[in-house]
Amino acid sequence: MLKFFDAHTHANLSAFKEDYKEVVNRALSAGVGMVNVGTQKDTSLRAVEIALEFASEPVFAAIGLHPVHTDKSFHDVNELGGGEAAKEFTSRGEVFDYGYYKKLALDSKVVAIGECGLDYFRIADNELGIKEKQKWAFEEQIKLAHEVNKPLMIHCRNAFPDLISILDFRFRLLGSNPGIIHFFTGTENEAEKLLELGFYFTFGGVITFVRDYDEVIKLIPINRILSETDAPYVAPVPYRGKRNEPAYVVETIKKLAEIKLLSIEAMASQILKNTSECFNLKLTR
Fold first, then answer.
1. What digits encode the pLDDT tens for the residues 79-108?
2. What CA–CA distance (Å, rounded) separates 222 from 217?
3. Any idea of the CA torsion for 264, 265, 267, 271, to the nearest 10 degrees?
4. What is the DSSP annotation of 26-58?
5. Which pLDDT score, from 0 to 100, does residue 123 have?
6. Strands 73-75 and 110-119
7. How many C-beta neighbours within 10 Å does residue 241 have?
8. Cα–Cα distance between 19 and 24 in angstroms, integer?
9. Tell me, what's the pLDDT at 79?
């Protein structure tokens, strides 16, 4: 029986190449459904393939181009959260291919467009060319989400003013259910603005070992909160230093319940309801 949901995970990445079936089945056995999120062409395709392999299960896909993959870039172990899954990698850079992603997006198992957005963490202020590539790819994915009537799965790091400006400008394309701000790291004021635009927010394992997010979690209404792992990265307590996986989302939901002063059963039930509404799914508990 479905009890919990991981709205943003990556069993489609190479960290799970050898055992993705076992990882997905462990989650399903624990009552955890999931959305595997693509970050570029190959991982988006892989997310769809896994969703189709588990066609009768609550295993879905999101497809899109992550901002860090719009240009060549290097990512180190610490940035990826440490642990055995956090391996160094270099992005080769990709130009967003609207037709390719639209074809993937039309599959009924695809529930969102992204992981898209803006990431200025490793970009100097004078590197405007890289920022412009990210903005262009993000706007194209907003257009695609509008065309296929599916919500956005947004990644944003060190770029909330620009992100909100773009979303404001494209407001007419967002609709009543614009999507999710994944792994939200913004301010309370930025959260309030994004709430006004209609977004949901996911929180992951980091909230189990730092208190930095408590106040913004208290601020966000319970009907706008989803849970995630972002596996294989940033495993929650008590799995710190290990490869994260979707089954561990239960630990994050426990912490969300604690912060919101709810039972885990009430928190999990509300998250399933929110997930159903956000992704236009019929999830039962």
1. 444 455 445 556 778 999 999 999 999 999
2. 9
3. 130
4. HHHHTTEEEEEE-SSHHHHHHHHHHHHHTTTSS
5. 87
6. unpaired
7. 10
8. 9
9. 45
Q: How far is 66 from 70, CA to CA, in rounded Å?
A: 7
Q: How far apart are CA 19 and CA 185, in angstroms?
A: 31
- Residue length of the chain: 285
* 8 A C-beta contact, residue 271 and residue 204: no
Token pair in block for residue 262: 């709810």
Amino acid identity of 197? L
* Residue 69 tokens, joined: 């993959």
- Using the structure block, give the residue that is written with the tokens 């509300």: 270
Q: How far apart are CA 279 and CA 17, in angstroms?
A: 26
Query: 258 vs 16, 237, 254, 255, CA distance in Å?
Result: 31, 14, 6, 5
- Per-residue tokens: 7: 């709205």
The answer to whether the CB of 258 falls within 8 A of the CB of 266 is: no
Rounded Cα distance, 136 and 155, in Å: 15
Backbone angles phi, psi at 201, to 5 degrees: -135, 135
Angle between helices 98-105 and 128-148 (to 10 degrees): 40
